[in-house]
Amino acid sequence: MKAHVLVFMLFFSFGSLFAQKYSNEFLSIGVGAKAQALGNAVVAQTNDVTAGVWNPAGLAANEDAPGLQIGAMHAEWFAGVGKFDYIGVMLPSNNDKRRLALSFIRFGVDEIPNTLTLYESDGTVNFDNLREFSAADYALLLSYAQKGRPGNGQWFWGGNVKVIHRRIGPFANSWGFGLDGGVQYHRGNFRFGAMAKDLSTSFNAWSFNFTDEERQTLELTNNEVPINSLETTKPQLILGVAQRFQFKKIGLTPELDLIVSTDGKRNTLVSSDPFSIDPAIGIEADLNQTVFLRLGMNQFQKESSFSGKSVLSPRPGIGVGLKISALQVDYAFTDLAAQENTYSHIISLLLNLKARK
Fold first, then answer.
1. Residue 219 near residue 225 (C-beta atoms within 8 A)
2. Which of 20, 55, 139, 337 is geometrically suited to a Cys-Cys bond with 342, CB 3.0 to 4.6 A?
3. pTM for this model (two decimals)
């Protein structure tokens, strides 16, 4: 693999460092097998520890306020090439009106060969010079949520402070910061939610560290040497509505979300500039809130078929869940890229720990 191939892989696989439209997209993948199976349509009904990522207002709607809730997820995308991990903690509180949570996310590709030093000065190949590195994105979210005064329904609101760190081996790294805000409104069997991501227009400040030899190799292979830069992430608004239906022991909860991006024209169902709208649909069936079956679709993209016609291609998801006492296990089978042969298995856990009286 030549040096220019390495550079192409880094900048293509993880998104252009200078492109603004899809900045920090790893945070849009979503956490929790439940949400993945529901097509990420959860902003109105989420109320467990994963709400710290989806809609922090939902943390205050959690009924296990006195205890500690822990969530974890592991997923491998593209036949195990990319690994996505999440762990979240909702902290115990003696006040059922307020909640705090911490969320940690990592999405990375490991064991990437560094071929910049593969060739000696005389042009010969020396495989002893090969070194491996990782390219990974990290995010730490601190979430706060509070329950409003009861009235004609119940309001919940919350927010996130997030720190983002992205690293491409020894060559580049960035630090970024952002703010999110969300609300939920519950009335009867209806749930309404709104999540404003990157309210402050999040940013990542990139710095690059190439040796003189590596810079020379990039120049000789007609590659541009990156310079320190600032990458911004524009705000995004997610609106959701859900309703619960109860039929004796069986419950049904459908939800519809609308994801409104503000960074220009995207390949979405409603595509315009500067706003584009992408719907997400999910439905959950449960038996006594113990056994769950979930279906969902999102990322409705227009693709060209072999005949040249434009077809609508959504990202489907399916999953199951099982709640046993304080432990809930969720599984999802979904497609990250809405293309063939990219389906992955996702498993996540939720554990509720209540303090002894």
1. yes
2. 337
3. 0.83
